[in-house]
Amino acid sequence: MVWIEFMTQESSQCTPETMPDPEGVFRARFGRKPGWIAAAPGRVNLIGEHVDYNDGLVLPMAIDRSCHVAGGPNDSNEFVIYSAQRDEEARFSLDDMSPEPTGSFGDYFRGIIAGFQTRGHEVPGFQAALSSDVPIGSGLSSSAALEVAAATFIEAMLGIELAPLEKALLCQQAEQKFVGVPCGLMDQYASVFGKSDQLILLDCETEESRYVPFDDPAVGVLVINSNVHHQLDDGQYALRRQQCEAAAARLGLLSLRHLSPEDFENRSAELEPIELRRVRHVISENERTKAAAEAIARRDWRLTGDLMFQSHSSLRDDYQVSCDELDAIVELCRTIGEEGGVHGCRMTGAGFGGCAIALIRADQTDIIAARVSEEYGRLTGIKPTLFTTRPAEGARVIG
What's the rounded Cα separation, in Å, for the pair 350 and 258? Predict the structure, then answer.
């Protein structure tokens, strides 16, 4: 990964160079050596946004920024977890496993522990320390990285290994039940199944996937953090999901995945205006994702970039989850264009802030990053944080 040093007032977010050593964080907090250290990556989604919870097609990749969990049992029924990124401690016991969200990052751990318990695995009390260079609230799935790292740590501590899909589902359920975010499976799946130089084409209905090679050294992914932060539990994410479910019910469908483009054209008059816009995005985004996977497989970067621009327009206009800052980044990249080394750009993640991703010529990285940083700062008064990434390995035990 190439780190591009355009750090901002968001300096509390770690970079790969400044992230504390996970073993050192645990030693400093708890005065002993951790028994195990697990890591799980964040993700970016190249295309296929807000369709995972509609049983659609998504094309994510794990990134080379990760959450680390270092820890070991403490001979009690109490869990004590320290987050270096937040400089906060969460503390609870086996007697306090209510799924009612508290707003603490400890909710993620309670959900993961409960997931193991419901599967017949008793989890002893433990101490753990988190260190992460996945920015919080950036749309890079810091929560999924935390969940999957926690689950991988518990697997190592218990001496067991869940099936990869089972682990992803456990983590998704933890976020849904204990954090209160009705997320789809994509983020956790990418964090578990990530593979170097491979994108993951995931069918969220069948929960099956195939890898799509992304190994052209001439092309890279530039992540552009707007440094405008969203929060997924503020109701907007859940509202979009409810609107899609209402539209599917109105059409007599289990999910919008079962609505073809032709059927949508024929039945669009049955939908409320806001439902029509949401459904149009979902239907068209699934088609774009299929087309993008085929284009990437044959290294057609121009078409892939065009599909990314189309995706952003749909997210902005029909799904209404973009914001002025993300729109500014995408328009800057559109202006730079193919001639300047940008094939395409779009927001990634839930929206309302966070990151955009640009598909770029690798030999133009520094020039593109400098121009986006300068012009975005001039337009918004905010300095972005930028880094390049390639598809990375998924969850693993590293110590």
Answer: 23
